[in-house]
Amino acid sequence: MTILAELLAHDLADVLDEPHVLFGHSMGGLVAHQVAKHRWAAGKRMADALVVAACPAPHLVSPLATVVDLDDARLAIGLDTIGGLPPELLDRPQWMSTFLEGVRADLKLCFAHSYRAEPRLPCAIHVFGGEHDPLVRRSALAGWRRHTSASFTLKMLDGNHFLASDENSGLRSEVFALVENVTHSDAPRPQ
Predict the structure, then answer these.
(1) Nearest 5°: phi and psi at 111?
(2) Rounded Cα distance, 21 and 24, in Å
(3) Is the distance from CB of 138 to CB of 57 less than 8 angstroms?
(4) Can you name the residues that pair with 25 across neighbouring β-strands?
(5) Is 101 exposed, middle or buried (0-12, 13-18, 19+ CB in 10 A)?
(6) Relative to the CA of 183, which of 47, 68, 160, 174 has its CA 20 to 30 Å away?
(7) What is the pTM of this model?
(8) 111 burial type by CB count under 10 A (0-12 exposed, 13-18 middle, 19+ buried)
(9) Exposure letters 64-90 (e unless 16+ CB within 10 A, then b)
(10) Signal sequence: where (predicted)?
(11) What is the pLDDT of residues 50-76, one digit of tens each?
């Protein structure tokens, strides 16, 4: 995870040197947090905000820790149960193993990452969760509060774990409004 964050911070340096908001859904929340930490440790411009959805706070153990070692059939059933199996795969089972390899690699990346206590980020953190998310509870989302020395918000939406792909969850409009507000505010920006 640290190497991934360093590579992303390097490859996106030109973009991240401008006003920006980092967003991550599920595993992406951990990645976005690591990119923000890397930028701050390097003395680079901080994000105007960190926005995460359906992601437990980085100091907590992921609720998916036990699924990494499941066989393909059980992993697919688990993903389907929580709405994480794209319907296209059900029509093309020959793609299933390739899809599950990617999922398993993402999960291993998350679980190989160990949290180290560090100073709080000086940017606002905004967290979204799904009221019907069977994986990430409100308390795990609220844990993000301890990772910022700036403002913190938590909003629960009517949806499950996959808020980012659910057009009816309201996540997109919430994030777009937040980005618009943060990037066009006259408030001082963290450096």
Answers:
(1) -80, -20
(2) 10
(3) no
(4) 53
(5) exposed
(6) 160
(7) 0.87
(8) middle
(9) beebbebeeeebbebbeeebbbeeebe
(10) none
(11) 999 999 999 987 766 667 778 888 888
- Residue that is written with structure tokens 């609720």 in the block: 63
Number of Cα atoms under 13 Å in the Cβ half of residue 68: 13
| Residue 168, helix vs strand vs coil | coil
Q: How far apart are CA 40 and CA 123, in angstroms?
A: 10
Question: What's the gap between Cα 156 and its chain centre?
Answer: 15
For the chain, the C-alpha Rg in angstroms (whole number) is 17
Instruction: In whole angstroms, give the CA distance from residue 101 to residue 9.
Output: 25
Question: CB–CB of 174/186 below 8 Å?
Answer: no
**Residue 107, both tokens:** 């999960």
Can you list the alpha helix ranges (DSSP code H) found in 42-170?
72-81, 87-91, 96-112, 138-142
Tens digit of pLDDT for each residue in 99-155? Answer: 888 888 888 887 777 778 888 999 999 999 999 999 899 999 999 999 999 999 999
- Residue 184 CB: number of other CB atoms within 10 A? 8
State the amino acid at position 57 in one-letter form. Answer: A
Q: Which residues contact 122 (CB under 8 A, 6 or more apart)?
A: 40, 46, 148, 149, 150, 190
Nearest Cα to Cα of residue 81 among 132, 156, 24: 132
